[in-house]
Design goal:
about 200 residues; alpha/beta; Rossmann fold; five-stranded parallel β-sheet
Length: about 200
């Protein structure tokens, strides 16, 4: 059986990637193809419980990183890996690039540690295509201000943290341009959809 393809969406909080998840899933679905839509941290009962801790409880960046990879290991073992092996395509809102950007770029956790934990927790599994939704701080804050919910502790971080995370994402894209494509997320929903369409058409 042909392995499914693994597509991930990345970007700073408020960039708008989650707004497009359902639409992208529909674009990936064709007759005979199954698509699993999931998220990180999360995707399994255990990972969702760890998500609640990570998003709500202040903690040391190393502890935070290890909890994220504990959730990811369970997610890959129980959901992502079996789905890909069965030929299902997987669309995931965040994956390990988010840890390199947020915990690495944003909080200074060593890239070597993140890379080691990635190898241990998902044994070399990488997305086939990653879309990084990119926008300036002002755009993301304005969008978050319209959200009808209480912001989590990452969404409450200051502009300097945001800029470190954003630059880490852009650096990741420069280091792996074949896999990681940057989407200008400052435009209208229709403009963004057109850019996304171009970047997923050749997966």
């Amino acid at each position: 059986m042909t392995r499914g393809r693994f597509v991930t969406l990345e970007g700073v909080d408020g960039a708008g990637k989650s707004t497009h998840v359902a639409w992208i899933a529909e674009r990936l679905r064709v007759p005979g193809r199954k698509v699993l839509v999931t998220r990180e941290p999360g995707g399994t009962a255990l990972a969702e419980r760890l998500r609640e801790l990570v998003l709500a409880e202040p903690m040391d960046p190393i502890a935070e990183t290890m909890l994220l990879f504990a959730a990811r290991a369970d997610h890959v073992q129980r959901e992502i890996g079996p789905a890909l092996a069965a030929g299902t395509w997987v669309l995931c809102d965040r994956f390990t690039d988010a840890t390199f950007a947020y915990q690495g770029g944003g909080k200074g956790v060593a890239a070597e540690l993140i890379a080691h934990l990635a190898q241990v927790s998902h044994n070399g599994l990488l997305p086939d295509r990653t879309l990084v939704f990119d926008c300036p701080y002002e755009v993301s804050r304005e969008r978050l201000s319209r959200a009808a919910r209480t912001p989590d502790r990452f969404e409450r971080e200051d502009s300097e943290f945001f800029e470190r995370v954003r630059q880490a994402y852009l650096a990741l894209a420069r280091s792996d341009p074949e896999r990681i494509r940057v989407i200008d997320a400052t435009g209208s929903p229709e403009e963004i959809k057109k850019l996304v369409e171009e970047e997923i058409s050749d997966i």
